[in-house]
Amino acid sequence: MQNWLASLKVKIIKLGTCVVEAPEPLPTTTVQIKSALGIGGGSTVVLIETDRRVLIDTGFDNEAVQTPENREANRRKLVAALKEEGYEKEDIDAVFITHWHLDHYGNVELFQKAELLASQPLVKRLNLTGFKGVEDGEQIARDARVIFTPGHTADHASVIVAGEIRIVVAGDAIVSLSYFDKGKAWQYNTDFYSGEKAMQSMVLLARSADIIIPGHGLPFMSYQPAWLLERQSGGQSTRL
User: Fold this and answer.
1) Phi then psi dihedrals of residue 63, to 5 deg
2) Which residues lie below 8 Å from residue 129, measured CB to CB, with a gap of 6+?
3) Contacts with 21 (C-beta within 8 Å, 6 or more apart), sequence order
4) What integer is the mean pLDDT of 162-185?
5) Which of 29, 39, 91, 222 makes an SS bond possible with 87, Cβ 3.0 to 4.6 Å?
6) Full-model pTM
7) What's the confidence (pLDDT) of residue 163?
8) Is 48 within 8 Å of 9 (Cβ atoms)?
């Protein structure tokens, strides 16, 4: 095993799913069929472990089903996923929420002993009780810093983990590989902020990462898809 692989500080605890990929239309039947197949649309849950254990997002499947049974099922799934990796919920020192959508924050109440973190603009806008606001560029653990990535929402933030390889935990700034490849932002949320800001955030994350962990779906190596090359040739590139 290569040395850098042995020193990874990031682990996916629970892999999220995407109910509508970039090439797909959004008829109700698409979501219904995927739901019937067991695709719940919850976000990916990521653990950063350096000087402390920081969980990025908490996931929540089938967010439209607001029943006690679904909430309890979601909590059981996350607790089981943590245990499978050798952790109890009490082992988590901090939880960072990329943005305030239920499929990302829905299980946050599990972590009663953890420090709760989100971007400063988000905490201020929603007056989130019990949360500490984090500034752009601020470290939340050794080798892990927050980067503001507005677009999907006005106060979205992602996390960059530095090391021999750079890993970006993107949240919904990059929803999945298909959205990145097509240069598309998820715009189906009612609080969608800006298409141009979303594109700028995708460029920023692509240039910041060797590996991208999207909000939903498998991680992938960062690359320059056609839309990004066109953007650069048109003088619209974003510099770090």
Assistant:
1) -65, -20
2) none
3) 176, 178, 179
4) 96
5) 91
6) 0.94
7) 86
8) yes
> Dihedrals φ, ψ of 92, to 5°?
-85, 125
Residue 237 has a pLDDT of: 41
Residue pair 212/165 in contact (Cβ under 8 Å)? The answer is no
Compute the residue count for the chain.
240
- Secondary structure E strands in 35-166: 45-49, 53-56, 94-96, 115-119, 131-134, 139-141, 144-148, 157-161
Report the distance separating Cα 160 and Cα 120, nearest Å: 17
CA distance 156 to 171: 8
Tell how strand 115-119 and strand 94-96 pair up.
parallel
Lowest-confidence range among 36-50, 175-189, 226-240?
A: 226-240
Per-residue pLDDT at 240: 32
Separation CA 120–CA 136 (nearest Å): 8
Of 150, 163, 174, 157, the residue nearest 223 (C-alpha): 174
Structure tokens that stand for 85 in this block? 């990796």
Query: How many other CB atoms sit within 10 Å of the CB of residue 88?
Result: 9
Write the CB contacts of 24 (distance below 8 Å, at least 6 apart in sequence).
Answer: 30
Average pLDDT over residues 58-72: 96
The whole-number pLDDT of residue 239 equals: 32
32-64 confidence digits (pLDDT tens): 899 999 999 999 999 999 999 999 999 999 999
Which is nearest to 118 in space by CA: 87, 110, 104?
104
169 near 147, Cβ under 8 Å? no
